[in-house]
């Protein structure tokens, strides 16, 4: 495998002087923001990407207050040039060692009432944007050897929850993006994995369900509580670290045993 620094015209020993960069899309959200903050501990810079620049800047500022370095970038995953835009900003910041895609579109609507535009958007911002970003980075001369790409997946990939057709289908496609890229890029030692959260307490979930409903639902989960964004971020940080340098094509589930507790047979009538 050729050295990206050499391809960029830099001497091999310049690696120590090039900032180690982590890229997080959706960094203005609950899970994305937590991932960005967690990766700041092991990287010189974190490129915080969100379509809302103010939210990206908030996350970058939090990283700065904690002693790290965050760079805010505004980019919309629905834009066909999203991957190239983010990759260019990331390479300008240093040598990219990891990237995390934490963007999805979720609409809770019965299938008969669901518009095709909503389904298209789910595919555009999740599997297509993730592939575009990872491909742009993989073809860049500024990618570090042994780089790690992680997608934030969902239990919806394998569980066909009602009223979530677009989200379900998009995550099914995202899973195949992860598996295929891990397969094809293994010889280049580019690792591609997914972290699969269960029901996590995020601001977005509060908007969808309300705090009271989430509190009741949390008590009914196997662990008796909702998951926390920090727990998801810890899994991402592991997959992005040298400790996982032989892990690729894996789906690390962080759900407090929720997925294995969903299988139940109908009880029938007495």
Automatic annotation (TrEMBL):
The keyword Oxidoreductase applies. InterPro entries: NAD(P)-bd_dom_sf, SDR_fam. GO terms for molecular function: oxidoreductase activity. It holds the Pfam family adh_short_C2. It comes from the Bacteria. Keywords: Oxidoreductase. CDD domains: SDR_c. Belongs to the short-chain dehydrogenases/reductases (SDR) family. PANTHER family: OXIDOREDUCTASE, SHORT-CHAIN DEHYDROGENASE/REDUCTASE FAMILY (AFU_ORTHOLOGUE AFUA_5G02870), SHORT-CHAIN DEHYDROGENASE_REDUCTASE FAMILY PROTEIN. This is NAD(P)-dependent dehydrogenase (Short-subunit alcohol dehydrogenase family). It comes from Actinopolymorpha pittospori.
